[in-house]
Amino acid sequence: MDVFAWICAVALAATFLVVGVMKLVVPREKLISMRSFGWAADWSSRDIRGIGLAETLGAIGVIVPWATGIAPVLTPIAAVGLTLIQVGAFRTHWQRGEKREAWGNVSLLSLAVVVAVIRFIQL
């Protein structure tokens, strides 16, 4: 079970680290022009950076506390946070009629739930 949890956590962290950092460093106008980031037109630069920061911290949180043994309870909490971000992302994409992107959020949401549940059980 632990190997499966690590595989899920690493996949989750890698994905959120990439998209989170992208939201932190890529200008809003450039994000809007990218196919999967049309939603950025509805959000301010500050909001987008806030989401990016939350995603980046969540990516770190699903790996570092568990790996170091320092406050490991933060790992499932970070996974719950990433789950909530994906609920919001799904809702945004669904309301904008972006069904394909919305279902991509369901996969990440599912992965985050798996990590949260396994790590809470392992505490």
Automatic annotation (TrEMBL):
Cellular-component GO terms for this entry: membrane
Keywords carried by this UniProt record: Membrane, Transmembrane, Transmembrane helix
Subcellular location: Membrane
Bilayer topology annotation: Multi-pass membrane protein
Membrane-crossing residue ranges in chain numbering: 6-26, 47-67, 73-90, 102-121
Superkingdom, natural source: Bacteria
InterPro entries in UniProt: DoxX
Name of the protein this chain belongs to: Putative membrane protein YphA (DoxX/SURF4 family)
Organism placement in taxonomy: Bacteria, Bacillati, Actinomycetota, Actinomycetes, Propionibacteriales
